[in-house]
Amino acid sequence: MGGDGDKTKGCSMSVSRLESYKIKAKLLQKAKQKSGQDFQLKDAFALIAKTAGFASWNDLKATLENQVDFCKKGHSAYWKVWYASYDEARAHLDSDGGYLLPYQKDFFICDENFIQWLGLEVTDEDLLKVGRDWAKPLDADAYSRLLKKMK
């Protein structure tokens, strides 16, 4: 789902964040080497990823490359409850319903109005196959089709 244009809208933001992290890693490597330290680029990538809250550079990269921006212009008019952890968001979903969507490293619960704002119908067959947890969709193919239907 990278930002190569023919996939879902909103991915370019995540790719630009990835490029920003790459630049920071290269600058960090140069600064460490300038101070006389033997510091490889892979070490800089690992440190940048850890600082950003990821287990590894590969984890950070995979997360950003596979991310969809559900919070485009106009989204703030809709009700959402934000969570820093998936487990907290999932507990809210299980107790109160709604839809659980990922956003960068966070998660939010939204209602049917937000889903409709995305250009989807709550009766859409693919939405029903995906389920209400978009961070862990029940059907990956249906999820991919659903993302293409979004406005």
As for the number of domains, it is 2
Instruction: Give the spatial strand order of the biggest sheet.
Output: 1-3-2
Largest sheet: 3 strands, antiparallel
How big is the Rg? 18 Å
Strand residue content: 5-15%
Q: What's the count of strands? A: 3
Q: What's the helical proportion of residues?
A: 40-55%
Low-confidence stretches: 1-15
Provide a count of the helices: 7
Overall mean confidence score, pLDDT? 80
Helix and strand content put the structural class at mainly alpha
Order of helices and strands: HHHEHEEHHH
Distance between the termini: 16 Å
Give the overall form: elongated
InterPro entries: Glyoxalase_8
Organism: Bdellovibrio bacteriovorus str. Tiberius
Protein name: Glyoxalase-related protein domain-containing protein
Domain Glyoxalase-related protein: 14-68
Task: Name its key features.
151 residues; disordered N terminus; mainly alpha; 3 strands; 7 helices
